[in-house]
Amino acid sequence: MLKKTKGWTKSKNVHSKRYKNDLANYLHERSIKCVTERIDGIEEVIGRSGVIMKREDELVIYCGSETVMRTKIDDLYAWELLSLEGVVITAHDLEHGGEERTVIAFYTYWRPMES
Asked: In the beta sheet, which residues pair with residue 71?
């Protein structure tokens, strides 16, 4: 019963802290196959095989042992691709001097094994 109530009370305001926190919880520990960034109209792959993690009040994208992006949850704007195969994140990147970046993280497709 509590799950149904929580679904009804989801924040739909994309600028609210609650919406951004719910999205960060949804993305937490999501494995990704690659991360791209669009620079001057050209998409470049900036990382492969990684994970999106929520750490305290930050959202961090790791690829291998490299931190691709680190941002405050309250400052990010994010939305899923229509195909639901990834997420677009626009935010000030704390790892790269606070410049605003837009990255696209594509999820790893996997299915749980049947028992």
From this structure: 59
For every one of its 115 residues, what pLDDT tens digit does the chain have, with 9 covering 90 and above?
445 555 556 677 778 888 899 999 999 999 999 999 988 888 899 999 999 999 999 999 999 889 999 999 999 999 999 988 999 999 999 998 999 999 999 999 765 556 5
* CATH fold for the domain made of 13-107: PH-domain like (2.30.29)
Quote the strand ranges of the chain, DSSP E.
30-39, 42-55, 58-63, 66-72, 77-80, 86-92, 100-107
* Contact indicator for 60, 68 with CB cutoff of 8 Å: no
Q: What CA–CA distances, in Å, run from 1 to 6, 18, 20, 25?
A: 9, 21, 24, 20
Is there a contact between 68 and 103 (Cβ–Cβ < 8 Å)? yes
